[in-house]
Amino acid sequence: MIKERIIQLIENKKLPKEEFYIKIGMTSASFRGKAKETPLNSTAIENILSLIPDVNPNWLITGQGEMLKKDQAVIVKESKANYGNLKPIPLVSVTAVGGFGNNSFAIEERDVKDYYIIPKFKHKKVDFMIEVEGSSMYPKYNSGDVVACTVINENSFIQWNKTHVIATKEQGIIIKRIKKGSIEDKLCMISDNKDYDAFEVPKEDITGIALVVGVIRLE
Hints:
Number of domains: 2
Strand content: 25-35%
Distance between the termini: 21 Å
GO molecular function: DNA binding
Low-confidence stretches: 71-82
Structural class: alpha+beta
Helix content: 10-25%
Keywords: DNA-binding, Transcription, Transcription regulation
Order of helices and strands: HHHHEEEEEEEEEE
Number of helices: 4
Shape: globular
Largest sheet: 7 strands, antiparallel
Organism: Soonwooa buanensis
CATH superfamily of the largest domain: Umud Fragment, subunit A
Mean pLDDT: 82
Number of strands: 10
CATH architecture of the largest domain: Ribbon
């Protein structure tokens, strides 16, 4: 049962149970007796994945695999330096890329968490990388995955039904598949996780779009 696995996870991480239950929007009563056999809502699951990024979502939901992700990414993580033909790719905070749709957008050194050298991205135009938060794109992307992004300067270059990073005025940064909206002035945002409904965003609310061209997964 998923709630049994949550208890195992809490004990493995040596976290205070009552405090953890509150953070995921639940109480200890939900983890006792018959209540422990009831399913967990998607919001609680998303909160858990956000609070413990190294938990394996597949294990949490199905019980299959290892409890925690294992670092299997073949990358070199270094500070900015000279790497010959390989360009260091900046991993930046979500707030730092909020204005990437502006012509004057530039990544400031203070916003860079790290630089990554990834040989497989050598022939891709990667402008920046950010971490995935939440479970709306599961199983395609897990919370904690790092996605590589190429900024799109014109809406005509959108690749329909492909995953994009979208900067919006109202919702901030979101990662979704994009489809055409019900009217010309809107775009439809699609999650891979079926627990999340599709929704439309007015084009005037979008300040930037970047195509996801690669992912680094730690599992």
